[in-house]
Fold this protein.
Amino acid sequence: MVERHSDYTYSEKLRISVGTWNVNGGKHFRSIAHKHESITDWLLDLPKLTRESRPELLRNNINYDRPVDIYAIGFQEIIDLNASNIMNASTTNQREWGKYLQDIISRDHKYVLLTSIQLVGVCLYIFIRPKHAPFIRDVGVDSVKTGLGGAAGNKGGVAIRFVMHHNSFVFVCSHLSAGQSHMQARNQEFHEIAQKLHFPMGRTISSHDYIIWCGDLNYRIDMPNSEVREAIKHGEYETLMAEDQLLKQRNLGSVFKGFLEFPTNFAPTYKYDLFCNDYDTSEKNRIPAWTDRILIRKKPWPKYIGEESAEPNEGITQMLYNRAELKTSDHRPVLALYDVELIRVNSERRFDVYDEVISLQGPSDATVVVFYSDNAGMDDESFQNIIQVIGASGNIILVRFVEQSTLITFSSGKEALEAVKSDGLSIGGREMRVTLKTGDWKQILQREMKLADICDEPVADEAEEVEDDVPELSSSTDRRSKFIKRLSLLREDSNFPTMSFDVDDEDEEAVTGKSKSREPSPRPEDNENRQSSVKKPDKPKPPERPAAPPARPPPPAPNRPAPPVNRPTSVLMRNHPTGSKQTMQASRISQPVDVVHRHASNPAEMKELINSLMSPTSPTSANLPAPMQPQKPSPPATDKSTPTTPPKPAPRSASSNSLSEKATPAVPPRRDVPPVAAPRNSMSPEDSSNKTVPPVPARPNAPPAVPPRNFQS
């Protein structure tokens, strides 16, 4: 499939604008000293300004008015590189620059922020057209510190990667070590950033189709200061490029191997005095250099069948590489404009090619079933003949016998398909049949292919059916029957706050293919007449609230059937020995034992039965425990010496809260108390009616005597 990818893919152009600028702390991007200069001269109008000043830097037969699809804007020193910012960088400038850039580049066409990343002073933004958002996925970011041996972020790099359709992009922005003689340190930092940048699923920057690297790389020019400034005055840029450190290291293969950078046919961008066109006039008197650079690299596609290998960076068209004249920093910003090849997939054609490819590859289970048409077994001689014939198709790795058949497994599916060609051959006068073990292997692979076909559809939460009046969309197959008409990922209620916007008419036309007619805006007087002529409907009155909640209906009475009148009633009593501690209870067994059964056929007999059972002369009551035996009522025992009124409590002392002996209340004299009945367990059946116990001396402040209890039935 990879070798034949040209049979089911097609390419289209994608325009990318990449800018880099060292803003020297970012303090002057809204300076009123040069309010006539705008950042639009760098990001939007640079092709137009270049056409006016240096038209030789532009290409012919290229439409520069076509809008940019992706903006990648990198900054260095977006905050002051002092000690406090290096340890704890502020993100205020990042947010302010992001809002400011989005407003600027959306002057002619709408752009949204895909994502951004900051490492102390290094910051990178990715802006895209809204119509491309549903086709972008797998966005990732990473950063690498190289300052102070990797401990500080004053130097280092940041990266943003994503996949658009079937192409992967990674953008890198870096700030390398400064100094005329620190070239080896810059080389080492480049390799450190390139090796340490990692993304999910183990991806590195070298695993992407397109790598675009920008930033303040700080490579200098190995020439005396005076000669460099003199060459700049005369525009002898080729002389300066011959001594450029970055070009020398690239030619040696030390850094940026395989990257492409177009000639720097503009004045060096470093170092200027603020708010003027003079190079450095300070005590250091630094040599001017092209420190701000932009490079690009494309991974070569594999070799096609019948074609030569593709050349590196084939399909990249650089339309502009120039600097802008913004004087609010000691660096000048640089912009590169590219048209790159974007690979799209034709799903219908891909399925056709896939069917052709898998028909040649064979099934994943390379096993064939061999048997005779007469379903008879095979002897050793027949088996050797079969192996000799089938073995000519490929390498046999396993042979199994299942009933009357033989299962032969080959090392590849192609060999299994070759063995199936032997079907129907005659061996020893018997017809041999050869079939694949998995006969529906093509259908299985096609189902798996359909499940994996998710990259052609927009990554959005909603999709609407294609309307019939859009011919280029309505002719699609069922697999592409849904298409994005409304970019629902970018609604205001989305979880991405940076992507809150309304899709403009131009983007809607690009997605749907329909042109939207624009009606002239109504005049104010027309609005007034329309409002006066149209009567606003009255608002409906809210329903009145009831004074009290409705009463709850009473629960329905249980419908229980009445018991039969003439049904005999049985009383079940267990017979326990005398003095047993077990109490009377009903039997829970269907056929109880040791139970006296007596029946009553009417209420009168039942009453008589109960009275006889509860009488003292009943034979059943004799076996009951003493507390349960029926007794005759007896008058309570009383003592004539016992006062009828309870004793009055003794008066308390004056100070009831004191614990001293003087405050102790007086103890009343002893008094005789009435006799108290004995406990239940100490009574016997014979003396349970008249037996009393000797009186017990009363305690101080004792309660009145309690009369004995009588146990009645």
